[in-house]
Amino acid sequence: MSTSKLIKLFEYGKTGVIQLNRPAALNAINGEMWKTMYQLMSKAEHQKDVVIVKGSGKVFSAGGDIKELISNSPEKTHFVYSLGCRSYDLIANYKKPFVVFVDGLLMGGGAFYAMPAKYRIATERTVFSMPETIIGYFNDAGSSYFLSRLDNHFGVYMGLTGNQVKGFDMKKVGLATHFIESHKLDEVEKSLTKCKTHEDVEKVLVASSSNPPSSTTELDDLLPKINKCFGGATLEEIYTNLEEEGSEWAQKTLNILALRSPTGLKVSHRSITTGKNFSLRDCLKREMRLTINHNFQESDVKEGVRAILVDKDMKPNWLHKTIYEVTDEDVDQYFQPTPEKYELYFEENVKNRL
């Protein structure tokens, strides 16, 4: 076993198991971890037959270290976020079987490691959310790519509300590839260490997969409503659809959206709904611009972090009070090109970045 303080690498012959190991912070990913993870995954692609990523304890990852991110300079923000984007791109194009055990909490930046994996394992303990709009931010971590490609406008719903989706529902909507009960994971991991090919891995995962106690969940009833309401071309149309839908669920959803940053909602809505027209790399490049521009431009993020995470008064003073005050021009500024040194580059374009 090779060990750093925050990332552990277990080597079983030609299988590498990489573990996020910051349980006291719910495996929130800081700058050191982004760098170590990228380096380990890059080496493992050439040295191992199978790679597994998991979290320590009962959590996969609570996402990026938000407090660290907002205190960073633009240069540091660019460096850290580049590692996340390049990790997503690396995993999405991985030449070897790449398996992620999403056992427990998964939030925000943890999606950089989970969502591009060919094999995404959810359990009965899995709870996934993209909660960025809660603190006035936009949905990042490649979400403009993977959320935009979910059916029934579920990605738009998930991104805007920040609502959680549980294990088997993740499989149902396409966020997970397999549902396996958590008590089986140790044995599954042991079996995967004997695999060499995608076919070997698929046999192990299929043999270990489970069906839920009930074939239907609450989400089955909600999907038609989500599809109807969140298919609006604009955020204003979504609000109108929810008002006209008139159910208890619709009113609850409107109440949730009312707590979010109007600017964050508008930026996230544009990012997700237009993301389906972009390639993965173009989505990631655009998210980098959004990240840097949130650093440069006046935004709701610092106020959101103050109100939700620091002072915890839950009373953020957003730049705009309602979505109807946020103009297209207000949103445009976050999508503008940044100085070249802050653009996103991928490995073949940049040498000796790390």
UniProtKB/TrEMBL annotation:
UniProt keyword Phosphoprotein present: no
Purpose of the protein: Hydrolyzes 3-hydroxyisobutyryl-CoA (HIBYL-CoA), a saline catabolite. Has high activity toward isobutyryl-CoA. Could be an isobutyryl-CoA dehydrogenase that functions in valine catabolism. Also hydrolyzes 3-hydroxypropanoyl-CoA.
Assigned keywords, A-Z: Hydrolase
An annotated GO BP: L-valine catabolic process
UniProt keyword Hydrolase present: yes
Pfam family for this entry, one: ECH_2
Residue ranges of domain Enoyl-CoA hydratase/isomerase in the record: 16-335
One annotated Gene Ontology cellular component of this protein: mitochondrion
Identification of the protein by name: 3-hydroxyisobutyryl-CoA hydrolase, mitochondrial
Enzyme's top EC category: hydrolase
GO molecular function: 3-hydroxyisobutyryl-CoA hydrolase activity
Family: Belongs to the enoyl-CoA hydratase/isomerase family.
Superkingdom of this protein's organism: Eukaryota
Listed EC numbers: 3.1.2.4
PANTHER family registered for this protein in UniProt: 3-HYDROXYISOBUTYRYL-COA HYDROLASE, MITOCHONDRIAL, 3-HYDROXYISOBUTYRYL-COA HYDROLASE-RELATED
